[in-house]
Structure formats: structure tokens, C-alpha cells
């Protein structure tokens, strides 16, 4: 308003000046006086009002005005709309969360478990079959079960190692191999991670179908857990069916953790389905945390299935376990199996 | 050595996109990759501002901290560069960057993004300066020729400033004092941990 007013006065003064030649000195003086007056009146107004070209929109003001947690976005002329996000300070929060918290937690989960198991091995030693090996075996896992288990196991190990490489590779393997070889290794690791995820998901589903009936928690599990599974004391063997409570914990951890890893991993593989940056960051965090936790559980599983316990590996190796091992660790399951195999030839016994 | 920075004076930027075009042409950047872009805030409204944005070559760059293969390095001029031979295209740097700088030649194709590409501050990559290998992967190395980034050199209104941080901040300060207003050095707080105070 003031500006328009000012321009009007200026225009008037100009017109007056044009006529000035014909004007008397008095009218000239009057015109100058009125101009001076107009300027004197307008000047404070001009100072007070905001010049639109000078209106400064500071980054801070816009951050506040947008009210979108410091995200500044606008219009871009390129097809990628997400390029309109000008500044996203919260990305730095993810960066620090990933490179500090996630790395620390992963290292604790993996190496902490290894150290704990090492301590356990030193204190408890290999868990032997108390009655000694009988030499007679019982079929524990058929070929389909073993195929599903080893597909899951192999893919998980490659996925876990290639994933762990992304967390600690640059501080452990990079100094050993140098940047070129480490880059190549990590690139292959990424390809393996992307493609082996699929057989992992298939075998996870297969495992669920095959074993879910044996893994429904029941009263026996409470008793098993109360006795610490007989892990801590020699000669203690709480009764268990095909899977004891410890194995059930591993089963459900693998199923739930594996499903979470599959879902978040799928989203990371197909970023356009997942959404935008915030979603990717979220999925990456969940993926990394679940992977660290599940790795710790699986390391313990590998331990007890190999060096930790005599006779345990045969269950998944040949599928045939020693009878005495089975009696000690899965007493009720042995009774079931013996019952059915005995019952095959004879008439069904009366109950 | 200088501490190279970018500063976009959003009160001068007229969204002509010459910086974007200059960058694409100078480095023969492939279609779909935008090392630099111009974003217009409050488009068509009072207080409209355009800002030209690329990699800000941050102090303690978040991209470098999350890179699983450690392919980033900082030059003596404080320019953040990366090694495409080491890059595995995991995308973490793009999650970490506050400025949307990392670009990928492929998107959403089963997670294979290809090697990351971003603004090099016109200073190439780890290959020998001004070599063909360097040009193919990263584009021209103007800094090695003693020149500043072309986007800033080409800027018609001199909105985009490139050079030593202290010097361009001083130029910006003088402008703000002279004209009596300034929207601030966009992104400086997030990139360098300090705003330009006038």
C-alpha cells in the first residue's frame, strides 16, 4: 500500500516537473515542498513495511514452518519426486545409530556368544552320553528333514557371514585383504546375500511345515527348563519328546526371526515397494538387530549340535542317533518310536 | 590447503538449472543421475526460494561412517570422494545422506543399484588425475587443473559459490550486510556443523 502510494506521489511530482517550464517560481516551490512533504510522510512507512523482495526465508524459519521434523522439501524439475527432499537432517541420526549402536550390539551378540560358549566348554566340557554309546541306532530325521535343515543352515551361514561382513568387515577383513580384494569379496557377498535369501525363505517354510507339530509348548517344557535341560549337571536328563524345550526355543526363534529377516530383507531388496528413506532405514535397523540376535542363538545351536555334545551331530548327519543318546535326551520320543515300530508287526496293544 | 565448501545464496538463485546442466555436460553424467539439482521451496508463494543442492562434502561425512566397505575418502581439500571399484551399491550412503547426494544408475531392480555416483566437487576419483580411467568413472577433474567446480563457475547470478569455506562465507556475509537480508547458508549446519553468522 505504502509503496503504491509512494509511486503515485512520485508520478505526480514527475508530471509537475514536466510542466515546470511553464510554471511560476512559486508553483515550482510549492511542488518541491509537496514532494518533500510526501517523502517525509512516506519514509517511516517504507521502513516499517516489509519489502517482498527482501523477505528472507531462513532455513531455520522454514524448518519450523514446515513442522516436518527438520525436513525441507520442495519442487524439482526432474522426474524423481523424492529429489525434492532438500535437507533431511534425521538421516544423520540413522547413520550414527547404524555405525555406533548397531555395530556394537552385533559385535556383542556374536562374539559375546562365542566367548560365553568357550567358557561353558571349559567349565562343563563336552556333554557325554552317560551310559556310553550302545551301538544301536534309531532313525531321528528323515532325508527331507535333513535336506530342509541343511539348506536352511547353509544359506543362513552364508547370509550371516556376508551380513556380518557389512558390519565389521571394514575393521577386520579390510586391513588384511586391502581395499581391492575386500571390495570384490564384499560385492560377491552382497550377490550371495541377495540370491541365497530365496532358498533360505523356502527352507524356512519347509521347516515350519515339517516340525511345527513337534514344537507346540507343553507342560514337559516347564519341567525341562526347571532342570536347566540337564545342561549344567552331569547325569540329569529331564524327559522330552522329539524336541525338548531348548530346541523349541531355537525352532521358534528361527521361525519368527527368519520371518522378520525375510520380510525386512524383501523390503530392502525392493526399495520401491518398501516406500521411502524412512522406511528403508527402519527395515535396515530391524534387519540388523534381528540378524544379530538370531546369529547368537544359532551359534549356540551349532555348538551344542557339534562339539558341545557327544552323539548330537548324528541326528542331522546320518539321521540315525545312538539309542542311549536318544534315551537320555529324548526319553519320551524313544518310547513313542519304539512303541510304533514294535506295534507295526504285532496287533495294536490294548490301552 | 583449503577447506572446500559449497554455498548457495537462495536469495539469488533463480532456478535456471544452469548448474545442473553444466554438471551433466562436464562429467557426461548418465541419464537419470543427478549429481546436482535445484529445489524450489514455497513454489509460487510469497517467500519462494530456490536452492541448488549437491553433495556438500560434509565434515565427518555420515556416508563414510556407514559405508560397509569404507570406499569413501577425504582429500586434502576436504572434498569427500569415493572409490567405485570398492563400492558394492548397498545404498547405505543414500540412507545416511541428509542432502540426497548419492545416486545409482539402476533403481528397484532386485536391489542391484550399481556403483554409487555423486558430486566429486569436480575433482575426480582415486585414479591418476585427469586420466581417461578417472574421467569415465567420475568425470572431469577441474580441481587438478586449478579450476573450481563448473556449476558454481557457470552460475549466472553467482548464487552458487564454491571455494574455500572461509572465503565464500565472507563473500556471503558481505552480500547480506550490503543488501540487508539473507536466508542463510542452506545445509551448512548439517554439513559442517556451523551456520554462517552475519
TrEMBL record, chain B:
Against Pfam families, the record matches this protein to:
Fer4
Could you tell me which CDD domains the record lists for this protein? DMSOR_beta_like
Q: Which Gene Ontology terms cover its molecular function?
A: 4 iron, 4 sulfur cluster binding; electron transfer activity; metal ion binding; oxidoreductase activity
Highest taxon, organism lineage: Bacteria
Listed A to Z, the keywords are:
4Fe-4S, Electron transport, Iron, Iron-sulfur, Metal-binding, Oxidoreductase, Transport
The cofactors it requires, by name, are:
[4Fe-4S] cluster
- Report which residue ranges the record marks as coiled coil: none
* Signal sequence coordinates: none
**Taking every annotated instance into account, which residue ranges of this chain make up the domain 4Fe-4S ferredoxin-type?**
4-34, 47-77, 78-107
Under the heading PANTHER family, the entry gives: PROTEIN NRFC, PROTEIN NRFC HOMOLOG
Give the protein's recorded name.
Formate dehydrogenase iron-sulfur subunit
Organism source for this protein?
Roseibaca calidilacus
Amino acid at each position: 500500500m505504502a509503496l503504491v502510494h509512494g509511486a503515485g506521489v512520485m508520478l505526480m511530482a514527475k508530471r509537475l516537473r514536466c510542466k515546470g517550464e511553464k510554471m511560476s517560481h512559486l508553483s515550482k516551490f510549492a511542488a518541491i515542498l509537496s514532494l518533500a512533504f510526501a517523502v517525509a510522510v512516506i519514509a517511516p512507512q517504507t521502513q516499517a513495511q516489509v519489502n517482498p523482495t527482501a523477505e528472507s526465508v531462513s532455513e531455520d524459519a522454514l524448518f519450523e514452518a514446515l513442522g516436518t521434523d527438520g525436513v525441507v522439501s520442495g519442487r524439482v524439475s526432474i522426474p524423481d519426486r523424492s529429489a525434492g527432499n532438500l535437507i533431511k537432517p534425521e538421516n544423520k541420526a540413522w547413520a550414527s545409530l547404524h555405525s555406533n549402536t548397531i555395530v556394537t550390539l552385533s559385535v556383542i551378540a556374536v562374539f559375546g556368544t562365542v566367548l560365553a560358549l568357550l567358557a561353558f566348554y571349559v567349565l562343563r566340557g563336552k556333554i557325554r552320553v552317560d551310559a556310553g554309546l550302545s551301538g544301536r541306532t534309531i532313525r531321528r530325521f528323515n532325508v527331507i528333514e535333513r535336506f530342509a535343515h541343511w539348506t536352511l543352515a547353509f544359506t543362513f551361514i552364508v547370509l550371516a557371514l556376508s551380513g556380518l561382513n557389512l558390519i565389521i568387515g571394514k575393521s577386520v577383513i579390510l586391513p588384511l585383504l586391502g581395499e581391492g580384494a575386500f571390495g570384490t569379496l564384499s560385492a560377491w557377498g552382497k550377490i550371495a546375500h541377495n540370491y541365497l535369501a530365496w532358498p533360505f525363505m523356502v527352507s524356512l517354510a519347509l521347516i515350519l511345515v515339517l516340525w511345527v507339530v513337534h514344537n507346540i509348548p507343553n507342560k514337559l517344557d516347564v519341567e525341562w527348563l526347571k532342570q536347566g535341560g540337564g545342561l549344567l549337571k552331569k547325569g540329569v536328563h529331564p524327559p522330552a519328546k522329539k524336541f525338548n524345550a531348548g530346541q523349541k526355543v531355537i525352532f521358534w526363534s528361527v521361525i519368527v526371526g527368519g520371518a522378520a529377516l525375510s520380510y525386512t530383507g524383501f523390503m530392502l531388496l525392493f526399495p520401491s515397494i518398501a516406500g521411502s528413506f524412512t522406511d528403508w532405514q527402519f527395515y535396515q535397523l530391524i534387519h540388523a538387530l534381528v540378524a544379530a540376535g538370531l546369529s547368537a542363538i544359532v551359534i549356540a545351536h551349532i555348538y551344542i549340535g557339534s562339539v558341545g555334545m557327544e552323539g548330537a551331530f548324528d541326528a542331522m548327519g546320518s539321521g540315525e542317533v545312538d539309542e542311549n543318546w536318544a534315551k537320555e535326551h529324548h526319553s519320551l520320543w524313544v518310547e513313542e518310536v519304539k512303541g510304533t515300530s514294535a506295534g507295526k508287526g504285532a496287533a495294536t496293544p490294548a490301552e | 590447503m583449503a577447506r572446500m565448501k559449497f554455498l548457495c545464496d537462495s536469495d539469488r538463485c533463480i532456478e535456471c538449472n544452469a548448474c545442473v546442466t553444466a554438471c551433466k555436460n562436464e562429467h557426461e553424467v548418465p541419464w537419470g543421475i543427478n549429481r546436482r539439482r535445484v529445489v524450489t521451496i514455497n513454489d509460487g508463494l510469497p517467500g519462494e526460494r530456490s536452492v541448488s543442492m549437491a553433495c556438500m562434502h560434509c565434515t565427518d561425512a555420515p556416508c563414510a561412517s556407514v559405508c560397509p566397505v569404507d570406499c569413501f575418502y577425504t582429500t586434502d581439500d576436504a572434498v569427500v570422494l569415493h572409490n567405485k571399484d570398492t563400492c558394492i551399491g548397498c545404498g547405505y550412503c543414500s540412507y545416511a545422506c541428509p542432502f540426497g547426494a548419492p545416486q545409482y544408475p539402476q533403481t528397484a531392480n532386485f536391489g542391484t543399484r550399481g556403483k554409487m555416483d555423486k558430486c566429486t566437487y569436480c575433482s575426480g576419483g582415486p585414479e591418476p588425475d585427469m586420466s581417461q580411467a578417472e574421467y569415465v568413472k567420475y568425470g572431469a577433474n577441474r580441481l587438478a587443473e586449478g579450476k573450481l567446480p563448473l556449476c558454481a563457475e557457470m552460475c549466472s547470478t553467482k548464487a552458487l559459490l564454491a571455494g574455500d569455506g572461509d572465503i565464500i562465507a565472507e563473500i556471503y556475509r558481505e552480500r547480506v550486510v550490503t543488501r540487508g537480508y539473507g536466508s542463510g547458508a542452506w545445509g551448512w549446519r548439517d554439513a559442517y556443523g556451523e551456520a554462517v553468522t552475519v
